[in-house]
Each structure stands twice: as structure tokens, then as C-alpha cells.
Amino acid sequence: MRRHIVALLLSSAALCALAAPQALASPASAVSAAPATVFAGCGWVPEDIDGGGWYATADGAVNMRSGASTGCPANGVAYQGQALDYHCYSTPLADDDFSWTYARNVSTGVQGWIRNDLLTDHGSKVKCR
User: Fold this and answer.
1) Among 3, 72, 75, 125, which residue carries the largest CB count within 10 Å?
2) pTM, whole model, 2 decimals?
């Protein structure tokens, strides 16, 4: 009896695995849609696609976080006057109204996400992909 139950469970799992991609597909997915919104969760490091100069600085001492949320741990701090190399920006998460820029602190090498309202020029103008 135990073998029959195990075999039934395994075959059910295999059937679900085969059916899941088709169940998730919809006719709308075949139509070209707008680019996906980019949310930067904790630990996500985007590629450097902002070719701007390294003139931006923090507006005081600000945390450089591992993700675009105050809930993500800080990797380090950027201080006013330290040059920042922007990589790109991320759209606001549902729980706040702020966009975030991923940057490298040229002075220290620390990289992380900084809320755009804490940057002297309000962050990168190039959206992450």
C-alpha cells in the first residue's frame, strides 16, 4: 500500500511540473508588453549601465544598502563630498514612494542602493534592467 501511495504522489508531482508552465502562460503573454518593472530586492546587484560622470555625492551621511529598501542591510556609508559612480536606478517598491540608485563609492569602493532623495542630484537617470 505504501508503494502505491508513493508512486501516486510521484506521478502527481511530475504531472504538476509538466502542466505548470502551460497554466501560467496566457494569450496576453504572446503580445508584446511594456518592459517589466524593476524592483531591487536585497542582494541584487545590477549591471553598470549609467555612463555618467562621478560628480554626484550624498546629501550628508547615507547608508548604501544591499537592496532598494530600508529593510535591507547596509553595506556601508557614503558621506557628503564622496564621489559616487551610478550604475542605474530602480522603481519604487510598493511599500514606499522612493526610487533608488545603485552606486559605487569611488573613495571606498563600497557598493549599494541609495534612496534618490538622499542624493544631491536625485540619482541615476538610467533605469536598471
Assistant:
1) 72
2) 0.67
